Amino acid sequence: MAKAFFRLQKFLRRTQFLLFFLTAAYLMAGSLLLLQRTRLVLQQGPRGTPSNQALPVPEEMGRLGIIEPRTLQSPGPRLLVHMDALQEPALDQQHSPHWLVSRNSELRQLRRRWFHRFTSDQEPLQTAGFKAMKHTAEHKGTYMGCFTHDSRERTLKGAVFYDLRKMTVAHCQEACAERAYSYAGLAYGAECYCGNSLPAAAAKPEECNIECKGEKGSVCGGVSRLSVYGVEELRAPARRRKNVIYRGCFRAPENITDTFPASLIQPNLTVEMCSEFCSKKEFPLAVIRGQECYCGYPTRRFPLREGTDGLRCSGAHNASTAAGGQDCLVYQTPVQDTRCTDRKFLTTKSKVFVALSSFPGAGNTWARHLIEHATGYYTGSYYFDGALYNKGFKGEKDHWRSRRTICVKTHESGKTEIEMFDSAILLIRNPYKSLMAEFNRKYAGHLGYATDHNWKSKEWPDFVNSYASWWASHVLEWLKYGKRLLVVHYEDLKQSLIPKLKEMVEFLNVTVTEDRLLCVENNRDGNFKRSGAKQKNFEPFTQEMKDLINRYILTVDEALRGRNFSGLPREYVPR
């Protein structure tokens, strides 16, 4: 009996030691993982990994031939061969990619990079000893006070801007003044609202207590509170004229006074006079017929789709000689069309999980802008891109599987990643344009252009050799594994915006009004046009590059037709 008890005691001691050892090993592994993640955040810095900074790649992959050793030393893209591609039967070697590339590891690093940024610096400023900010001393506009802010019925219902990293009082004032608004209001430390009339309900000064995201010591409103400034004195006449865009000569609607909600009759009417009048009334269109000025929106009665011959509006830019009969001159004022800017998350989880899939550089962000404004719902993203979140894509911070967004952006390919979705909008763009757009994004951000030095460096040929096959493999794999697809060509969407957008909205099972679609068309560009000097007659592709890309074009075109989709647009035809 004693011997058996001794053996049991010995066994329990050994088990206790084993459990202690396993627990210690588990804690050590967790500590090492935490230290590694901390080091990664420190390397990224306060703004995250720059667009042209590659993520680390294990040396073993280079030695195995998965990644060329030279790519480990260059600032170009670090690409991994997708494991599914290695296991799939080889495609036709004449036209098809001989290997399929994917940035899964690089892109997945983006998913949660920005989360910690939204949980920090969010607390309101302490109000002790903080009565109000130093308004007139630091900023050009006139501080009007703290007001209540109702997001559903806004008084400042003009343009809306977001910048959750760099918003300052001066930035908001300048943005509103550029668009000819009289007032600029800031809320939640990062949101800027413009308008021409003050909010009705004032709030206590201390309730505007959230610090500006881009300016320490300054206040940018509060929770449901606006810090409002008058910016009338900042609006220079030259700047106002600069922001008026000529839309063309159009046939006037039959009952013009019923079509437009505001009007003015003025002798010697000028474009500046009409635009200023309509801007104050907060309308995006200024319509001139002789000495008559009308303000309003694009509507079914006045859709601005088919212009008339410019000769019918003689002196198109001189209102005093404009046609006074059936035709009228139309100008775009600096005021934003806000009929389609309200967006929200889905109130109930979506039953259908929809992807908005594209190769990078194919216009995915622009398509999200159109979908959000057409449907009124946010789009999600497989990645966390802080730059896009800062500009108003609030679905960026929502988990991509939350099903609270109307669709989810993804550049992923591969059987597993594709079959997670119930259906998808597959956005395809000319590979020549896509490659250039993605190269610009890598070296100059979403809205910039790469420099001559970038294009002439060795990174550009390496980039084309790697990414051209990815363009093809992305489409081929979605055609193979996608359950329910709507194929949309970027060029068709750009040329026939409303018909194609209608198809996309119907695919998403959302009903929208014609006026909302016209509002989207009026705001079609959003803030997604690249700035800076664009090179004219620029041809970065060598003949060898063209031969490579053209083979992929033929492969994708054949695959689309094989799935009973229309082939690639004519402009994709090999050069």
Automatic annotation (TrEMBL):
Record flagged with keyword Repeat: yes
Matching entries from PROSITE patterns are given as: WSC
Q: Name one Pfam family in it.
A: WSC
User: Per its UniProt record, what SUPFAM superfamilies does this chain match?
Assistant: P-loop containing nucleoside triphosphate hydrolases
Q: Which residues form the WSC domain?
A: 140-232, 243-340
Instruction: Kindly give the SMART domains that the UniProt entry links to this protein.
Output: WSC (SM00321)
One GO molecular function term of this record is: sulfotransferase activity
What InterPro entries does this protein map onto? P-loop_NTPase, Sialate-O-sulfotransferase, Sulfotransferase_dom, WSC_carb-bd
Which keywords are on file for this protein?
Answer: Repeat
UniProt family annotation: Belongs to the WSCD family.
Entry protein name: WSCD1 protein
Species, as recorded: Sylvia borin
